[in-house]
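Bump. Still looking for ATP phosphoribosyltransferase structure tokens.
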Amino acid sequence: MKTLKIAIQKSGRLNDKSVELLKNCGLSFENYKSSLISPVSNFPLEILFLRDDDIPEYVQDGIADLGIVGENVIEETEVAVSYLQRLGFGKCSLKIAITNNSDITDIQGLNGKSIATTYPVILGKFLAKQNIDADIRTISGSVEISPGLGLSDAICDLVSTGGTLKSNGLKPFADVMSSEAVLIGSKGSENDDLIQELIQRIQSVLRAKETKYVVLNVEKANLPGILKLLPGVKSPSVLPLAEEGWVAVHTVIPERDFWGRISQLKQAGAQGIVVMPIEKIIL
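Sorry for the wait, here they are.
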């Protein structure tokens, strides 16, 4: 059996979550902090730890079969890869930011201005769509200090919480793109059976993180109203209790509307509600 290779970030904001995801998929590997290549002992897979900027090209060129990287990196490197799965972590936005005392009031106000960024390709495409002629100044790091040093009128950089912008006297001005971590593969990789098996593991972990397992007790007379509130994976499981006229209902509830649904269940007669995390959901 062949061995797959997956490239992930060696260090940075996506590293910990990528490692956590792979381990939650049941993959066993060690020494990832001290090695650039780590073999998985219970699945035909090797993990490559690379700079995030290199991951898309490694996948495009077939050196790695798969990669976990931010969408912003893929767009900036302009590689030809397939998006296989959004992963739900590493969410951020690429934004244009201006100084707090800037005289720029609308997007057209960027005409003739200088913008410092580490994402010249993405920024250039965005400005072209807006018919804006600005001077893009490419720098390798610490973009947020550029206006304070007189190097630029604005910046374009990744923003998660906005704390770094605020501490440097900057404020968000325009959204360029949203980004999150994605699983990518070389063109045609989605047809590989071994890759599909790994994707299935990843999807089962992601589905589990988005849902809660709920067990509740309810009188049979109130059961129809409860079932209307509980879609489950296919349909809720209903089991009789030792006490006559009562049943236990087992189901899953999406994380996004969990608290609202719990309130509705209580109003419909649910009692003894037990909520548990789910490790994996395999469809």
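The mean pLDDT is 91.

Edit: fixed formatting.
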